[in-house]
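Structural prep section.
Before we set up the soaks we want a predicted structure of the protein with nicotinamide-adenine-dinucleotide in place, mainly to decide which crystallisation condition to try first. Input record follows.
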Amino acid sequence: MGEYTAAIIGTGGIARRHAGYYRDSHRVKLQAGADINAERLKEFCDAHEIEHRYTDHQQMLDEMRPDIVSVCTWNRTHMRLSMDAMEAGAQAVISEKPMGEDLGGPMDAVALAAKTGCYFVIGHQTRFSPGHNAAKKLLSEGAIGSPVSVAIRSGGALLNMGSHLVDNMRWILGEPDWEFVVGWIQRETNRFERGSYCEEMTHALIRFEGGHEMTLSLDMEDGVKNQDHQFIGPDGAINFNRQQAVLLDEEGFHPPMAIEQPGYFDELLAWMDGGPAHRNEASGALQAQQILMAIYESALNHLRVEPPFEKRESPLEEAILSGELPCEGEPHDIRSDEALEYAIETGQVQE
Ligand SMILES: NC(=O)c1ccc[n+]([C@@H]2O[C@H](COP(=O)([O-])OP(=O)(O)OC[C@H]3O[C@@H](n4cnc5c(N)ncnc54)[C@H](O)[C@@H]3O)[C@@H](O)[C@H]2O)c1
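Run finished without errors. Recording the tokens verbatim:
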């Protein structure tokens, strides 16, 4: 079994989880970190005993040639930096979610991973939750019949929370293709989230192959994150959260089920060793990203959107920049002023 070197690009909050993956593996040496913010880089690298530090990720990739690269930066940069790592010869890339703010970048990155043979995964780690795995098992065994529907209510914006929720529900359902999407959004204030344009509310209906349906209701102001959810089918219901799933059928409530999972990072190393593909292989997340963009397209053009949907640009961004989706107030970021400043400075967004 091989030993690997690793590097992290973006040494902020979520990078701590990635540093933990490497620290807990005796097969990987976390040798380098890169961040545009030198102070944060130093603090992080000191805390995690990382020797090589760079404020330019490309210089880091060129000099260190890491085997595994974690991309833990703000949304808009995920795919560009993942591709830079692949082009520099990385054997594996773990990119944080969401894949990006459009579909073009994710499509290019997935294609490049296929071409270079890079093990490319996206940080939708809720696929490892014991409760979600129990719900998946019950559904696959036909415990509540078919088709099923699930209504998700949550706080958070579509890219940030919706990426987890859409990816996760589709995975629990057995990764069916989507058949159509109908969406509605509201963006009346000039808001951004970690440098990406974001809306205040989203409602969507997503129909999957087999007749399964997901409704999604996201409300930045009043929504509560990580609520319990429920699948309803012709023969019963499954109440579930990350910790457990409870089946309700004609016999009444069954005991709670939880199915423990291997580690997210262990599954990547097993894949690199020749085992089965990681459950978070990026091509699966690409489907979720496509659905997110289809929701924007539907909302902004008042259309029912069906596959194939391969529009590269973000429909939300297009509508904002063309003035079709006017808003009030000064630009502000609900997570990170620094991310918005960087996005404006680098021309990724317009004020
Ligand atoms: N999987 C999850 O559950 C989960 C949880 C939290 C955050 N995230 C994702 O992780 C990403 C980062 O979120 P965070 O909360 O850690 O943000 P953060 O602001 O704490 O950290 C991001 C870091 O990236 C650095 N950075 C930005 N652009 C860079 C570039 N071009 N090169 C090098 N460094 C750069 C910033 O300076 C910052 O230090 C977001 O996309 C978010 O959606 C995922």
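Observations: The pocket of nicotinamide-adenine-dinucleotide is lined by residues 9-14, 34-37, 40, 57, 72-75, 77, 96-97, 123, 125, 160, 194, 336 (CB under 6 Å).
Flagged for discussion at group meeting.
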